[in-house]
Every structure is written in structure tokens, then in C-alpha cells.
Design a protein that fits this description.
6-stranded antiparallel β-barrel; 10% strand; single chain; alpha/beta; 1496 residues; disordered C terminus; 7-stranded parallel sheet
Length: 1496
């Protein structure tokens, strides 16, 4: 009998005998039997180093000829060579420019490109022999061009494409010094040698500063410059000329070599990337313009051909970037006004040329600009001119030389070209911003299924795409936002396509006999539309063409299950839905085939987005969201009011007038999406709104965000307002802790030994004092010797009152020196980056920074942003444990429900807290009034309480102070204490405080107690004054807004919430001074940027003072589902990672306190420095061994089970039954020994395996109260940021390494466990992977077969240091043996438990004794379950399957555990025929639902 997933795998294979081959999916069997493997073993494999034959250059020639240049089949061979470490071990170590052949060069280039395609580290290979790199780079450049004096190139077009790709990688890796030194020479000012002399003179005249540099260059080269230097200066121009020659040879019709097209596409990609970076475009843009590449490319035949579609899209991108709104000299962005002025300058130059040269065109020369700057007008005026006339104008404008002679013989001077050149150069450009504002934000069917715009297939990296890239640097903030806008929009479109295909295919639309639509299935996320009508089209705003608002009503029938009905009724305001039209042609009963194209099967015609305004009540009014419960509506008919996209509606109405169908009369499906994935429209609106407003980023951040200037400029040590004195509050536990925290500083403390208690105020003597002085004094101060010393000033907290609860909460964590440095940096103004490896206390550092800023800067407000609600809640729970007044805390978003506290920190929860606190404080005022004997209603409102404080409380306090001052010299302390007791005016109020109130040894101490008591009273009135606004504001909404804008000092939200609510927050006047971001390396670039701009600038400046980012770029990046956007566009790069790449200073936390030292060694090699904290060696749980297991971590080799290793029931849905069974058997063994289920998590690297393990658990032990479910079964990616004591990992793959090759995923996988880590995988596959070798070398030092200590029980007293004995341990050979062993252990356990459980007769007797009322059923269940309560640790959500059994108790019967999972074939067939199953844990359904590629 087979499992469902296996049956599906077989069906999939039969249905698709020849699946599309994925690049790089080489299998281990192919690898080991291959000629490459044999050569590697002989010459370069690290495993056979001692047996290597001497270097032989012929081997490189042979491999290149046979394996690498043989066409399509070579992709797999290249991947195999790269995996064998061919580049690292053989090609690069043996490269020598004098001896290197063309094959050797190309082999290195192709291997490097393959590494870039696989997204693994490349430059560290070349950095091993840095001296060879300049000669190698020159070799690459020479191979890109024809040899001097010839027109033919010794490199083929395929090879030149590879060389071009390598060059592009170099220019995109400018943070690597090796690349930067070579690449920058090609695009420096000296390249202007290749310009036409008159054009060069014109450019130098425009920028006098560059003329100085040019003269200096000329001076250096009084003699003729070296030929090599001149060749380098002309390289870029020669490359363009060579490209134009290839491009213009392409015929308009006939056969076309695909290699030519690929070369042209890659060349444009290269030029776009150069234009999109300011350092490379600054001088290159002029050379590109002088070559007229865009005009010549637009006129080439390739643009008109079908094969040139991508080429045309790339050309549009290049055209956009060459005309980008930036000043190439200064790097400043240009406004629309500036661009218009430049355009006018060009037109007026042209008009002057016309006026001077052609009297027949005087009309053109004297016309105003607006009448002549469009294409039609220019074509009309230039149409009458011949080639000679056009050449005169172009020559006058310095666009072309007078004659096409050496060295400018490559210029085109024909009539068609010159006319197109003049028109293209002078026609008015449309504003990018205007086009953006007229763009609909919802994707339509044209975009969603356009493969050129949204690639869907597995992206191999072999081709380029017309997509923007997120690299190190951006031209301007507009460019930054635009690239992110386009990528975010397309990534969202990809996800929307998946959701539509899933929902509509489940609904099975068929054509009825009368031609209508009937639905044969159903979907949770979609419903048939019963009625649709557009109810309002509002007039456009002034100056706009689109309607200001379009609203429609959608009616649906909710004849679905209760929980699904609730989901539909709970659609919130601003939720996005999709209106879909299908006109199927398939008859009744046609099954949907997911392998066939989607649109023809379902007959999809149109898709339009809409935004929910709300559900309508019985009177047709929108039901508003609020604290009041929603009204219950009768029946199943529900109507929703929705907003349509105004831009899209206008375009559809224009199409309707041109004869198209009215899409708004044919919608028949309404689809919703999961709320967590449905925020794309709000984010896009936010980005678009930012692009339409002047983004004011703090000046100290601007250049760093764009990737320019000094990366350390925003570090606190370089900030002009660095603080010299810092109060660390409760950061330090004692003086020893303080000394240990600053090992590089000399500490000076004048306080006596007994008075050196925290808190401490530290004065950093190496920080210059801020003072107003002239330039000379400042200069003198700089030269003064800087001493690295700290003056320590202990100080005391002001006592807050006589009650024990008034004592402040204290930090109890002994921070390490690096954590202290991170806290210090976070307290200072500027940008702070904290890199926190797993278990190094990132959250504790964040919380201490927040606490210190809160106490030191009481008037400043701090915004906390994280990636997930879970991380935000963890942070918030720790903040609540510190000395921060809870009235100043606020949590925004929908994650506050998960906070483990009874207190409500949401907006309405905080309002209720304030109102309740107000009543409590007023009652205290009433008590105070009675204590001092004042009559009247002084505690009625905050206002009356304020008057009472001013006229009664303060008066009494001041009188008391003056009375006591008269007795300052009194020496009798008993008498003085008595005096204080009797004269203190508020003694009665403190009658419930510990007595006596005044207990001290000096007058000052007694006065201090009196002041602390008065401070307690004063704080009551201070709080009431803050709450006074809540009396004046009457509605909950107004009060919550006031709380957000004025009252709260620490506001927490997720990055998604910030993106969704930016407009609302800005309109409210939200203000903040500091931002702290947790999980920064997991947040998308744009979602990190938006929180910087949640407030309007004040006097044109951003008030942000501190930005603290905490994350770990060595762990997994943000999740991007589409491989093309992830790999090609680098969308997965977070801003945190980019800043680290740029060289922004970081504080690297270096003490981990999570995992055993041995487990930490598996991943600590990835970090600069990572040591273990002391408690790792001292606590018992780390000293003791893992019960029943010989090792604290082990890699267990899993061979094929019945000849099967990994399987793939659906594309990229990988499973491995042998590993699933083995891992579950180990889990069951641990549970039988007594391990708590909550301390064990099972992880895997693929979704398919996750579903398979859940199935195995369900069949084996999920419903067994003795074993139950583990804490979690999930993927490594989903488990990032979480931890557990014991982690079991399945690596799944047996044919190819797959995405575990990403070291970041490996680090996450290895660092989740505290005490035990057990990894199941195919050792022979993973041990050869270079990127994983550091970890796998350690893993392979231990036996590769699972070793048990079967005599142990949990918890064990055995220590990790105890030697293992053979008689006490057992080695498990394979999965089947483990399953058999666990079965026997289970049966033994059953025998032991059998006697303790009641018999059937005893159960009947118990039942007779119990009451028969329904409400007592729980007692009956308790009686049945009482004896197994201790062993039943199964999570509550997993107990559903046991409920029926509990209601009819029977005698205990052990659940047999078999080696095979038996599934009824009839049941499988029956389930296959059902249109949709709701059992989420089923592997079959999971495979059907998984349309995303699991590799992502």
C-alpha cells in the first residue's frame, strides 16, 4: 500500500514523462560516476589532495572543449564543475597571464558566472591571489573586443556574452576593493579622450570644475600617453561601437541566431546597470550620448522582430535612465521645473542653429517652445531637409563630426538617422510622475498573465529580464522609491495570480446548456456574484481626468459553513477584493488540469480590483467598524459597498467608447485574499504618495541611504551633537560590571568605596565638549591629546513615595562589553547597526536602549518597528517588565491580542486604562482632601483637582518647608523625627504606608523622605493634568488619536502596519524622535524606509535623531516568492544588509547564551567573533547529557527506503519518506523516555516534507495520548526567530543540495536548538558542498549512525563529559531498525501502564456513580483521563481527534505502530474525486495548493 503523496508522485511522472530540466539539478549518482568527478579526484578535489597529479593545462582545454562550450547540454556540466570546486582548487590557483590560454580565461569567467547564478560567494576566491586579478581583468577586457586592426573577435558571441556578464558583476560589486580598483578606471574622466573634440569642449565649458581636472590630466601626460592607457580609455566606446555593428547586421526578416539576441540583451542590461549608478554614469553618460546608442538601437531591425520584445523593453529602461532627473555633476535630483529648463535650453539651441543656417525654417526658429517640441511638429519641420541640411544642424549642435573619418568613421550620417536623432533629442519627455499617478494600482488580466512582465516559471538566471535591480546604490530618492514601487507591484501581482488561479480552479466554472455559467465546485476565498452595480461616479477634481471616486455594490449569497461565513462578514474596511469575469467554454463535468494553461480552461475574461468600504445593513447603509458589536443580519444574502480604482474605471470607459465590452456588467466571481498577504495596495499608495511629496530624510542619513559618501558619517562618533555625558540608569548591576564593560577605558570615580552603587552617570573624556568658539579654538581643540578615560558619577534615583510598589523595576541582566557598546551607541544620536547572532540577547539590548532613552529624554518619543507581530510582542513583554510607566506605552496593529498579559495595549485599551486610572487618581485626591480637612468637591474633574493642588496642597507644602528650615540645626534626632511626623501636613493620607514615615539619622534624610512623599502626591496631579484632555474629548476615536499623538512615549507597530497607515498617521500629526527596528535583516528595503517618513517635516527638516537597527544579515532575508524578483532583481536584500555591504560601522554582539557550546560551534564560524557566555558552562541543563541519546548533536545518514530517496509529487514539492519515518521514530523514542512534547520541534527545508511529516505523525502517534504532537512541525524558514530545547531536522534532498546551499539557511537551521540537534540527511551529497563544509566537517567527526543510550530515562543524571560504554549504548543501522526498536519500547511501556489503568468493569461502575446531567459530562471525562494526565502533554489544538473516544470510555487498548502506513485505496480514490477537501494536514491537498515554487 502506498501513501497518498507517493501515489501522486507516480501519477505526476506518468502524466509528464519528460519534465522540464532544471539547471543545476544534478544527482549524486550522476556526479560520482561522471568523468568530471573522476578528473576532480585526480587533480583538484580536496578529499583526494594527497593523491593529486601535477597541474596539466591540457585538462582545462579538454574540459572547456568537451563540457563547457558544447551548447545547451553544458548547463548541467558547468553546474557539476562548479560544485566540484573547479574554480577554487584548480583554475584560479594555476592562472598566470603569460601562460593562460583563452580556454583557461573562459573557464574562470563561466565558473564565476555560475557562482553568481547560484548566489554563492565569489570574490573570496579571487582574493586568495589578489596580485593576479589586475592581469586577469585586462585579459577579460581584451577578449571582449576584436583584436586591434581586425573586425573579427577570437571569442564567439556566446563567450562574449559570458564575458559581458562577468564585467557587469564586477561593476555591481563595487564594494569589493578588488573590483573597484579595476572597474573605476574604465569610467573615469579620462574616458572623455574618446569624445569628439568640440563635444568635449562644450561639456568642459558647462562644468568649469571638470576642466581643472582635465588640465591636470593633460599636464601629467605631456608626452604621449601609454598605448595601454589609451586602449583602456577607449574601451567603453569601442565596446559600444562593436555592439552597434553586431546589432545593425541583424536582418529584418529570416533566421536569427539566438546567441546574437542574447548578446544584445545582455549588453543593454550592462549599460542600464552602468547608468543606474552615479559613480559609473557620471562621465559614461556623456560618452553614451555621444555614441547615439539609443537612437541607433531604436532604428535597428531587432526592435521590430518578435524575438526583440525583451530587447525593446530593455531599451525603454535604458532610455528612461539616460534621461533621468539627476545632475550628473553634483548628484542632486532635478525637479520637473529643472528638467523643463534643460529641455527649453536644448530647443533654443536648436532654434538658434536653424535661424543661423536655414532661412526656410525661420518660422520654426521664431516659434515658442510649446508649439514645436512634440514629435509631429518636429517631423513636419525636419521633413523638408535633406541629409546635408540635417548634418549641418547636428554638427552645429556638436552631435556628429563634420565628416565620418578616422577616428570617427563609425558615426552614421545618413538622412534617416540624423532626422531621428534630432527629433528624439528634442521631443518633450513625458513626466514619469504623471504617468505613475495615472497608473491603476490593481493589476488586470493583461498584466497578471503577461510572462514578460511577471515571470512565473522557475527562474534559472540564464536570461536577463526587463526588471529594475536593487543593488548597493541609487541615483536619487525618486529612483529608490520608483524601483521599489515597480518590484513591489510585480511581486504582489505574482501572488495575486496564484490566488486567482487557486480560487477559480476550485470553483470549476462550466458552461450550461443555455450558455450561462454554472459552478461545479466551491472555494473558501471566492463566491459567485449575485448582483453588481456601479452606484456612484463622482466628478473629477480640478486639473484631473479621472473621477474623484467610483463606488459599487456587490451582492453575494453566503450559503457556506459558519466559520467561512464569519470570515466573509468580517471583511474590514480597506480590505482588497477582486472582481472576476469568467465565460467558460468547457461543458459540465470537465475536470481542471493544473498542468494545462489556466485561462482557456476557465474562460477568464477580466479581473478588476476593488477596496471594501463596508458591508451594508438592511437599510443599505454601510456598517461602520467600531467598539460596538456588529448587527446580526438575517438570511444569507449580503451586500458590500466597494471603491473601484478611478484610473482603471476611466481607462475602461475610454475603451468602451472605442467599441470594447463593458467589463462592469459581466462580473460573476468575488474573490478575497488572506489579510496578511493583502496589504499591497496600501503600500503602493504609500510609495506613490511619498514620490509626490518632498521626501525629507534627515541630512545625516540622506547620502548613506542612497549608498554614497562616508559610510561612517552617521555613526555617533562622527555626529556633531554627540553627547559627552550619559546616564545609564539600571544598565549596570554593580561597579565591577561597569569596569568590565569598558576594558579599553580608564575609569575615574571620586566617590568613596561604599558609595559606588549604581546607577551611574558617565562622562566620556574622549568626546570633545560642545562650545561656541571660533575656528582657531576648534582647530586647537582637535590637536589636544585625547585621553580614553571615563569619569564615573554615581547618583541616586529620586524616591517616588513611601510604598514598596513605588520602587522602580530594575534590570537584572549582566550585559557584555559589546552589548554595553550597542546600548551606548543606541543612546547617542545617529545611525546604529547592531548585528546580533543567534542567542546573543538582541531583544534585551533593544529594551535597555528604549528604557534609557525614555528616562534620559523624557520629552522624546520612540517608535518601535519589527517584521512580525511575534517579535513585537516579545519586545513589548520585556519593555513592560522594566521601569516604564504603562500610560506611555502603545501597541498599534492587530497583533496585540497575542500579548501574554491581561492588560490591553491597543489604542482603545489604553484609552480605557487612562479613564480608569483617572478615576483611581481622583479617588486618591478625594482621600487627600479628607486627610488635609478641606471641604468642597475638589475631586470631581482633573481641572478642579488642579486648582485644589495649586491652592491647598502647594500652600501646605511650602508652609511645611519654611517651618522645617527653622529646625535645620536641631541635633536631637528623636525630637526632629517627632517634629516631622506631627508637622507633615499629609501624614493622614499616608496612614496605609509602612510606619513610621520618618525614620532617618539626619535632617537631610528626613527632608528627603518628606520630599519623596510629596513627590508621590505631586505625581498624582501631574498625571491628572495629562489626563485632562480626555475629559474634554468626548468620543473614543478623538481620545485614541490624542493618546497616539500626545500621550504615548513608546509606540510599537510592525513594518506592514507602518506602510498601511502612513497617510493616516501623517494627517494626525504623528511625531517621533527615535526609531528602533528589530529583525531589520528580515524587512524589505522599502518597508524599512517608510517608517522614517511617518511624520511631516518641521520647518523643512526631519526631526529624527536616532535610528537603531538590530538584525542579523547572516540569517535568512525577507521572503520573496517569485524567483525572478528574488534572484535577478535582488529584491530579497534588506536595507540592513545593504548598509552592512556599504561598510557602515556595526556593533557585533559576541556572547551567545542559547545553545550548548558544541552546538554553537556548528554555526559560529560564520561570525567575526562569537563566544559562549559563562552560564553555558555552569548551568546543569548544559552539563547534563540528552537522555537516551549518546550525543548532543548528530548527523544521521539516511539511505533510500525501498529504492526511493527524494520524490517530487508536484514541481518543487520535495518529500523523503525514509527521513520522515526516521525523524518521527526518533521523536516517538524521545517521548517514550519522558521528554516533554513542548520541548521538541521538527524542522525541514521544504514544504512538501513538512506536510509528509505531519501525515506520518498523524498516522503514527498524533492521536496517541502517550506521545501526541511535537511543539511544532514547520520549515526552517518559518522557524527563524524561534528556538526550542531539542530540534530534529530533515534535509530531504538526495539528488541535489538545493536551497540549503544558501549559508544563511544553514545558519538558521543549526541555531534553533538549545540542548539537542539531530539532523537527518544524505551525507554523501552534502559533505561535498563547499559552502556547507565548515559545518559538515564538524558533523562528520561523530558517527553517522544514530547512537542511543536505551537505559536512560528523562531527565538523566549522565553528564556530557561521561565516557560512552558499548554495553549501555545501541547503534541504529537504518530507519526500519529504529521503527522496530521504538515499537518494542512502546509495547513495553504499554505493559507497564496497563496495570495502572481501570478495567472495563471498573469503568462501568464509575459511570453508574456519576450524575447523568449534560453539564456534568466533563467530570466523567476527568475520571477516565485522571491516570494518564501526567503523560498527556499533547497541545490543546491537537486533541480534537480524541474527543469522541473520551465520550464513550473503553478499556485501554494499545495503538499498534507499524512500519508501513496503510491507506485504503478506495478512500484515496474517493478523496481524489472531491472538489475541495478541508483537511489541511493532508499532503495531497497541500501539494495541490502549492503553486509557488518551493525553492523560493
Amino acid at each position: 500500500m502506498k501513501r497518498r503523496s507517493q501515489t501522486q508522485a507516480q501519477t505526476a511522472k506518468e502524466a509528464n514523462k519528460k519534465p522540464k530540466e532544471k539547471a543545476g539539478a544534478l544527482t549524486l549518482a550522476q556526479f560520482s560516476s561522471d568523468v568530471i568527478w573522476q578528473l576532480a579526484s585526480k587533480y583538484w578535489s580536496p578529499e583526494s589532495k594527497s593523491e593529486h597529479l601535477p597541474y596539466n593545462g591540457d585538462i582545462i582545454e579538454r574540459i572547456y572543449a568537451d563540457e563547457m562550450s558544447s551548447g545547451k547540454a553544458s548547463a548541467r556540466r558547468i553546474n557539476m564543475l562548479e560544485f566540484s570546486q573547479y574554480l577554487e582548487q584548480y583554475l584560479w590557483p594555476n592562472y598566470n597571464r603569460e601562460k593562460a590560454t583563452h580556454a583557461h580565461l573562459m573557464s574562470i569567467v563561466i565558473m564565476a558566472n555560475e557562482k553568481f547564478r547560484e548566489r554563492v560567494e565569489v570574490w573570496n576566491v579571487f582574493e586568495q591571489l589578489p596580485d593576479q586579478y589586475p592581469a586577469f581583468f585586462r585579459h577579460v577586457l581584451e577578449s571582449c573586443l576584436p583584436a586591434p586592426g581586425t573586425s573579427e573577435n577570437k571569442s564567439t558571441l556566446r563567450e562574449r556574452t559570458a564575458l559581458l556578464m562577468f564585467l557587469n558583476h564586477c561593476f555591481n560589486s563595487m564594494e569589493i576593493e578588488l573590483c573597484r580598483e579595476q572597474a573605476k578606471r574604465l569610467v573615469s574622466l579620462s574616458m572623455w579622450h574618446c569624445l569628439q573634440p568640440r563635444r568635449r569642449e562644450q561639456e568642459l565649458r558647462d562644468v568649469p570644475e571638470w576642466r581643472k581636472y582635465w588640465k591636470r590630466l593633460q599636464k601629467k601626460e605631456k608626452d604621449s600617453p601609454k598605448p595601454d592607457v589609451m586602449w583602456e580609455r577607449h574601451f567603453m566606446q569601442n565596446l559600444i561601437i562593436d555592439f552597434l555593428r553586431i546589432l545593425e547586421r541583424i536582418p529584418a526578416k529570416g533566421e536569427l541566431n539566438s546567441n546574437v539576441v542574447h548578446y544584445c540583451e545582455r549588453f543593454l542590461e550592462f549599460i542600464i546597470d552602468l547608468e543606474a549608478l552615479l559613480p559609473t554614469r557620471r562621465f559614461f553618460n556623456t560618452v553614451l550620448d555621444d555614441c547615439h546608442l539609443i537612437v541607433r538601437a531604436l532604428m535597428s531591425p531587432l526592435v521590430q522582430r518578435e524575438e526583440g520584445k525583451l530587447f525593446g523593453q530593455l531599451l525603454d529602461m535604458l532610455k528612461f535612465y539616460t534621461r533621468f532627473e539627476i545632475n550628473d555633476v553634483t548628484g542632486n535630483s532635478l525637479t520637473d521645473h529643472d528638467m523643463t529648463q534643460l529641455h527649453y535650453k536644448k530647443i533654443t539651441s536648436l532654434q538658434r542653429a536653424m535661424f543661423a543656417k536655414f532661412s526656410s525654417l525661420r518660422v520654426f526658429a521664431l516659434s515658442n517652445v510649446a508649439t514645436v517640441d512634440n514629435r509631429e511638429s518636429l517631423e513636419k519641420h525636419f521633413g523638408s531637409l535633406d541629409a546635408d541640411g540635417l548634418k549641418q544642424i547636428a554638427s552645429f549642435l556638436n552631435l556628429v563630426p563634420d565628416e565620418a573619418v578616422e577616428p570617427f568613421q563609425w558615426h552614421r550620417l545618413d538622412e534617416d538617422f540624423l532626422r531621428e536623432l534630432l527629433i528624439t533629442r528634442h521631443e518633450k519627455r513625458c513626466s514619469q510622475l504623471e504617468a505613475l499617478n495615472e497608473m491603476p494600482l490593481y493589476p488586470t488580466e493583461q498584466i497578471i498573465w503577461d510572462e514578460n512582465v511577471v515571470p512565473s516559471e522557475y527562474y534559472t538566471g540564464d536570461t536577463c529580464l526587463a526588471l529594475p535591480k536593487l543593488n548597493l546604490q541609487f541615483l536619487t530618492l525618486h529612483d529608490y522609491l520608483l524601483r521599489n514601487f515597480n518590484l513591489f507591484r510585480l511581486e504582489s501581482t505574482y501572488e495575486i495570480r496564484q490566488d486567482i488561479e487557486d480560487a477559480v480552479s476550485r470553483m470549476l466554472p462550466w458552461q450550461s446548456e443555455d450558455g450561462d455559467v454554472v459552478f461545479g465546485g466551491w472555494a473558501r476565498m471566492a463566491l459567485p456574484i449575485a448582483s453588481f452595480a456601479v452606484v456612484e461616479v463622482a466628478k473629477p477634481h480640478l486639473g484631473e481626468k479621472k473621477p474623484s471616486r467610483v463606488r459599487a455594490d456587490v451582492g453575494v449569497t453566503l450559503s457556506v459553513r459558519r466559520e467561512i461565513k464569519d470570515e466573509w462578514e468580517n471583511l474590514r474596511k480597506h480590505d482588497v477584493c477582486f472582481l472576476i469575469t469568467v465565460k467558460p467554454t468547457q461543458p459540465y463535468g470537465t475536470k481542471y488540469n493544473p498542468r494545462e494553461p489556466f485561462i482557456p480552461q476557465v474562460g477568464l475574461v477580466s479581473v478588476r480590483g476593488c477596496e471594501v468600504e463596508g458591508m451594508l445593513d438592511a437599510n443599505g447603509r454601510v456598517i461602520e467598524d467600531g467598539p460596538e458589536p456588529r448587527p446580526q443580519l438575517p438570511g444569507e444574502q449580503r451586500n458590500y459597498r466597494v471603491w473601484l480604482d478611478s484610473n482603471q474605471y476611466r481607462m475602461d470607459m475610454d475603451d468602451l467608447q472605442d467599441g470594447s465590452d463593458d467589463v462592469y456588467e459581466s462580473f460573476n466571481i468575488l474573490m478575497r485574499r488572506k489579510p496578511k498577504e493583502n496589504n499591497f495596495k496600501a503600500v503602493l499608495e504609500t510609495i506613490r504618495h511619498l514620490m509626490n511629496t518632498e521626501c525629507v530624510v534627515p541630512p545625516w542619513l540622506h547620502d548613506i541611504l542612497l549608498g554614497y559618501g562616508d559610510p561612517a558619517a552617521a555613526h555617533y562618533s562622527n555626529m556633531p551633537n554627540q553627547e559627552r555625558t550619559l546616564e545609564f540608569n539600571d544598565t549596570f548591576l554593580d561597579y565591577d560590571h561597569l569596569q568590565a564593560s569598558f576594558p579599553d577605558y580608564e575609569l575615574k570615580c571620586e566617590a568613596a568605596e561604599g558609595n559606588k552603587e549604581p546607577p551611574y552617570r558617565l562622562i566620556f573624556e574622549d568626546v570633545p565638549e560642545q562650545r561656541d568658539s571660533d575656528a582657531e579654538e576648534e582647530e586647537e581643540a582637535k590637536h589636544q591629546a585625547v585621553t580614553k578615560s571615563i569619569t564615573v558619577q554615581p547618583y541616586k534615583y529620586e524616591a517616588r513615595g513611601p510604598y514598596p510598589s513605588d520602587k522602580p523595576k530594575q534590570n537584572c541582566i549582566r550585559f557584555t562589553p559589546t552589548q554595553i557598546e550597542a546600548i551606548r551607541a543606541g543612546m547617542q544620536p545617529g545611525l546604529t547597526l547592531v548585528v546580533g547572532p543567534p542567542g546573543t540577547g538582541k531583544t534585551d539590548v533593544a529594551v535597555q536602549i528604549i528604557s534609557n532613552i525614555y528616562h534620559n529624554q523624557p520629552n522624546q518619543r520612540t517608535l518601535i518597528v519589527t517584521h512580525s507581530n511575534q517579535a513585537l510582542n516579545q519586545l513589548f513583554e520585556k519593555i513592560m517588565a522594566l521601569d516604564i510607566d504603562e500610560r506611555h506605552l502603545l501597541r498599534l496593529g492587530h497583533g496585540e491580542e497575542a500579548l501574554e498579559t491581561e492588560k490591553d495595549y491597543s489604542r482603545y485599551g489604553r484609552v480605557n486604562y487612562v479613564l480608569a486610572k483617572r478615576m483611581d487618581l481622583l479617588s486618591q485626591v478625594q482621600r487627600l482632601q479628607e486627610a488635609v480637612g478641606v471641604s468642597g468637591d475638589n475631586a470631581y474633574t482633573c481641572e478642579t483637582a488642579g486648582y485644589f493642588y495649586l491652592y491647598n496642597v502647594m500652600a501646605r507644602w511650602e508652609k511645611f518647608q519654611s517651618q522645617m528650615d527653622a529646625h535645620r540645626e536641631e541635633s536631637d534626632m528623636g525630637k526632629l523625627s517627632q517634629l516631622f511626623e506631627t508637622e507633615f501636613p499629609f501624614g493622614k493620607f499616608f496612614a496605609d504606608a509602612p510606619q513610621p514615615l520618618f525614620k532617618a539619622t539626619s535632617f537631610d534624610d528626613l527632608m528627603g523622605i518628606a520630599e519623596s512623599n510629596f513627590r508621590y502626591i505631586s505625581d498624582i496631579f501631574t498625571e491628572l493634568e495629562e489626563f485632562r484632555a480626555f475629559e474634554l474629548l468626548r468620543t473614543g476615536l478623538d481620545r485614541s488619536k490624542y493618546l497616539l499623538v500626545k500621550e504615548a512615549k513608546i509606540i510599537a507597530m510592525t513594518c506592514t502596519h507602518a506602510a498601511l497607515k502612513r497617510k493616516e498617521l501623517v494627517n494626525l500629526g504623528f511625531r517621533y524622535d527615535n526609531i528602533l527596528m528589530e529583525e531589520s535583516a528580515q524587512i524589505l528595503e522599502i518597508e524599512t524606509f517608510i517608517p522614517l517618513l511617518l511624520q511631516n517635516p518641521l520647518d523643512g527638516l526631519n526631526r529624527l535623531k536616532r535610528w537603531i537597527m538590530i538584525g542579523d544579515h547572516h540569517q535568512l532575508p525577507p521572503v520573496i516568492k517569485n524567483m525572478a524578483f528574488q534572484k535577478y532583481s535582488n529584491m530579497e536584500q534588506s536595507l540592513f544588509t545593504r548598509l552592512v555591504r556599504l561598510g557602515v560601522p556595526t556593533v557585533d554582539l559576541d556572547g551567545q547564551g542559547r545553545a550548548r557550546s558544541s552546538i554553537c560551534s556548528l554555526y559560529k564560524w560564520r561570525y567575526k567573533k562569537l563566544a559562549d557566555l559563562q552560564h553555558i558552562f555552569e548551568h546543569d541543563e548544559y552539563k547534563k547529557a540528552n537522555a537516551g541519546l549518546a550525543y548532543d548533536y548528530q548527523l544521521i545518514n539516511v539511505e533510500d527506503f525501498k529504492g526511493v530517496g527524494e520524490s517530487e509529487p508536484n514541481p518543487f514539492f520535495y518529500q523523503n519518506l525514509a527521513e520522515a519515518e526516521y525523524i518521527v521514530a526518533l521523536y516517538m523514542y524521545m517521548r517514550l523516555l519522558g521528554y516533554p512534547a513542548a520541548k521538541i520541534s521538527i524542522l525541514t527545508t521544504y514544504n512538501g516534507q513538512k506536510h509528509l511529516i505531519r501525515d506520518v505523525i498523524n498516522a503514527r502517534c498524533g492521536n496517541n495520548p502517550l506521545i501526541g504532537w511535537p511543539h511544532k512541525i514547520t520549515t526552517v524558514d518559518k522557524y527563524q526567530g524561534q528556538q526550542n530545547d531539542y530540534i530534529l531536522i530533515s534535509l530531504v534532498r538526495t539528488k541535489a543540495v538545493g536551497h540549503l546551499r544558501d549559508v544563511r539557511r544553514l545558519v538558521v537551521a543549526m541555531s534553533r536548538a538549545r540542548l539537542g540537534l539531530y539532523i537527518f540527511g544524505r551525507v554523501s551529497l552534502f559533505k561535498n558542498c563547499l559552502e556547507l563544509q565548515q559545518t559538515f566537517k564538524l558533523l562528520m567527526q561523530r558517527p553517522l549512525k544514530l547512537r542511543l543510550v536505551s537505559s536512560d530515562e528523562y531527565p538523566t543524571n549522565r553528564l556530557t563529559s561521561d565516557p560512552l560504554t558499548d554495553d549501555g549504548s545501541k547503534t541504529v543501522e537504518n530507519m526500519s531498525e529504529m521503527a522496530e526498536f521504538v515499537y518494542k519500547l512502546y509495547m513495553n511501556k504499554m505493559e507497564q501502564l496497563k496495570d495502572k489503568l481501570p478495567t472495563e468493569e471498573e469503568m462501568r461502575a464509575l459511570r453508574r456513580q456519576l450524575p447523568t446531567e449534560d453539564d456534568d459530562e466533563n467530570d466523567e471525562e476527568d475520571a477516565v483521563d485522571s491516570n494518564v494526565a501526567e503523560i498527556n502533554e499533547e497541545p490543546p489544538q491537537k486533541r480534537v481527534a480524541n474527543e469522541k473516544a473520551k465520550k464513550t470510555p473503553e478499556a485501554f487498548k494499545p495503538t499498534p505502530i507499524l512500519n508501513e502506513i496503510n491507506v485504503d485505496e478506495a478512500e484515496v480514490e474517493q478523496q481524489k474525486q472531491e472538489p475541495e477537501t478541508v483537511k489541511e494536514t493532508s499532503t495531497q491537498q497541500a501539494a495541490e495548493e502549492t503553486t509557488t515554487m518551493d525553492e523560493s
